[in-house]
Every structure is written in C-alpha cells, then in structure tokens.
Amino acid sequence: MNELTTKSGLSLLLVDDHTVVREGLKRLIDPQANQWSITEAGTGFQAIECLRRQPFDLAIVDLSMPGMSGLELTRRIKSEFPSVAVLVLTMHSEEQYAIRALQAGANGFVTKDSAATELVAAVRKVASGGVFLSALLAERVVQQLNGQSPVPDLQMLTNRELDILQRIVNGQRPVDIADSLHLSIKTISTHKKRIQEKLKLDSTAALIRFGLEHRLGSELIDPPVDDN
Fold it and tell me: Where would I find the Response regulatory domain in this sequence (predicted)?
C-alpha cells in the first residue's frame, strides 16, 4: 500500500491488483494537479484495512480482483462505510456490468479505456454525491431496464454463475475454481450444468466459445454471499 499525498482536496482510495494499472490511473487522474490525495490498495482486503484506518471521500474499485471482487468490495464498503462513494472500473463496457455494479451500490461506472477528462469528471461527480455513467452507456442501461432492448443471454446468469463461466473461459479447471471460491467440486459441476442449460450449450468448448464471443476472459465477478 502506497500513499501519494497532495496539499488538499479529495481523499481517494485506488484499489486494483495490478501495480502498472494503478500507476496508469494515477497519471490519468493527475492528483498533483487536482490537489487530491491517493492511497493505493492491491486487494479488497487491503482496501477494507485502509478504510478502517482513515476516512476517504471516494474508493475507485477495479471490478476484477483475486480474493474479493470489485462487486463484493463495493457491497462491503456500502455496508460498513456508507459515506464513502464508490466508482467502479472495468475493461467491459456492456450495460450488464454497469447494472450489476449499480445494484451492488456503486455510484459510478467507468471503463479503463476512458479518456482522462472523462475519468476526472467521473471522480468529481461521484465524490460530490452524484452518479456517473457515460452518456452512451447510460442510454443503454435505461433501455434495458425499461425493456426497450433485448436482454443479453448473460443476464439470465446469477453473479455466481457468471463468475464461474468467466473462470472457465479463463482456462481454470473445476478443482481450481472450487478452491478459489471455497466450494466443492460437486457444487461447481452443478453450477456449470445450470449455466449450460440456461445458455443451451452442450459442452465446455461451447461455453468457452460463447464466453469469448461475449468478451468474458479476464474480468471475474464474485457473487453475493447468499448466491450459492
């Protein structure tokens, strides 16, 4: 955990398990120019420790992290530190990820390929009590929530099922998935069977092709604790 201190302004907690990503985000946010302070955490557990030690205005949370995902961390922040705003970052721009993040309590949703101006605008908006989504993404989210656009196949999956599907696409074996999620191999097999039934796919290869077509590899979404 590293801290970059500036003279005044917002106190930000930047949570991402990749050091190079954190460095890139700091350059985009430009804390010195904005007079913001940034504390870094490499895991959700480190983030909780930071939040217990000092107050923050905003947590910038990566959606995909080992151990505790961005969704789980967002839920915990909103439960234990309700005054802290949360801006979720992801490599995916699909509305389903934004909807899941907002349902977890996030105040904003930004993709990692956003321009610096959009990221800074998101930080300012969310930290001041607002909600931030890009204009295009906001329109798609509203359309889907209002039933004006087709519901993606992935929306049929629970967070747990989506997590397991993504891990399959990433090449994890059932035993590795079970170990990561602290579940039995039998439970993983049951979830996999349900996923195949919902998506009408008859093999692991078909699941992987489906996942790749929907750009699922690398972002892992952990489920609510009662969604087993």
Answer: 11-127
